[in-house]
Structure formats: C-alpha cells, structure tokens
C-alpha cells in the first residue's frame, strides 16, 4: 500500500503547489495599496543580463500610495525606469536622478472590475491544474497491479476529496481577493 500513499501524497503536493502559485499570482494583482510585490517580477537589463529589480535596487513603500526604488548603482536608473515602463504595470515612473518614485493611482470602479476578472481567471487556471493533478493521480492508481478494485475505488474517492478540498480553498482565496479589490 506504500505505492497508494505515494500517489496520494504526490497528488496532494501538486494541488498544494497550484494553490501557492495562485497566492503568488494574487500578490501581483494590486488592490489599491502600494506593495513591493507589485514590481517583484520586473526584470531590468543590467550589464546585458535580465536581472530582477530587487537585485539592482532597494524597493520600499514609504506610504500607501507610493513605491520608492533606490538603485544601488546610479547608472542603472534609466534601465530600471525603462523596465518599469515596458512591464505594462500601468505606472508612470518619476525619476529625480537618484530614486524612482511610482505613484499608485487609486483604482477606478472599471479597473476594480478588471482586476476582479483577472483574479477569477487565475483561480480558474489553478482549478484546471488541480483537476489535471486529479486525472494524473487516478491514471497512476489504475496502473497499479496486485491491488484490489475496492482499494483503488477508495483511493479514487480520496483523490476526489482532495480535489474538492483544494477547489474550495481556491474559491475562498478568490472571495477574499475580490473583497480586497472591491474595497474602496
């Protein structure tokens, strides 16, 4: 029965990873307050190599509507500014020669609805990954030899319970994110 446990553990691990990815995706969806996570995926062309922004500059949030970026190397300031503009985050960086300031504009009702729709799309993508993990788990169970059909049916039931549990977790995360986005 060790093989059964390994299969169930693998399915659970895959589903858990999908939910963690969803949480990471939700961090990138801004909800009105400035956060360093809004720019964490910005890649700066630094000495000819794409480099994460947090490896070339100090990123901070001095207040709820501002992100401050202070490059460690002043020669990189233009490259950072260009990377922010090209990242399509919707920010207009202001450069004072030493720092880059990003003002996070308040969200309009239309933009809030767009972000809620984006969060819903991320959730659906995650649920697809969860269902694929279920399918893979069931395929693996059916490949097992020397195990009774009853035990395989019970294990399939366990895989389905995991699927339901993780889908419910996704729905809860979406509900919380939508509430955060729509809060004015």
TrEMBL record:
PANTHER family: MITOCHONDRIAL RIBOSOME RECYCLING FACTOR PSEUDO 1, RIBOSOME RECYCLING FACTOR. Keywords: Cytoplasm, Protein biosynthesis. The keyword Cytoplasm applies. Its main location: cytoplasm. It is found in: Cytoplasm. Gene3D superfamilies: 3.30.1360.40, Ribosome-recycling factor. It comes from Chryseobacterium piscicola. The gene is frr. Belongs to the RRF family. GO terms for biological process: translational termination. Responsible for the release of ribosomes from messenger RNA at the termination of protein biosynthesis. May increase the efficiency of translation by recycling ribosomes from one round of translation to another. The keyword Protein biosynthesis applies. Residues 23-182 form the Ribosome recycling factor domain. GO terms for molecular function: ribosomal large subunit binding. GO terms for cellular component: cytoplasm. This is Ribosome-recycling factor.
């Amino acid at each position: 029965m060790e093989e059964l446990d390994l299969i169930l553990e693998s399915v659970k691990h895959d589903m858990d990873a999908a939910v963690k990815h969803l949480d990471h995706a939700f961090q990138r969806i801004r909800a009105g307050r400035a956060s360093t996570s809004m720019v964490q995926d910005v890649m700066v062309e630094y000495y000819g190599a794409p480099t994460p922004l947090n490896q070339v500059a100090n990123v901070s949030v001095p207040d709820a509507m501002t992100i401050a970026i202070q490059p460690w190397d002043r020669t990189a300031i233009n490259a950072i500014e260009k990377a922010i503009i090209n990242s399509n985050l919707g920010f207009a960086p202001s450069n004072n020669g030493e720092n880059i300031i990003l003002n996070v504009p308040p969200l309009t009702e239309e933009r809030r609805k767009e972000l809620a729709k984006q969060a819903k799309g991320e959730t659906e993508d995650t649920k697809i990954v969860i269902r694929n993990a279920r399918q893979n788990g069931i395929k693996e169970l059916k490949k097992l030899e020397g195990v009774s059909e009853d035990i395989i049916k019970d294990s399939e039931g366990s895989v389905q319970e995991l699927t339901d549990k993780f889908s419910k977790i996704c729905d809860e995360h979406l509900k919380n994110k939508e509430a955060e986005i729509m809060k004015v």
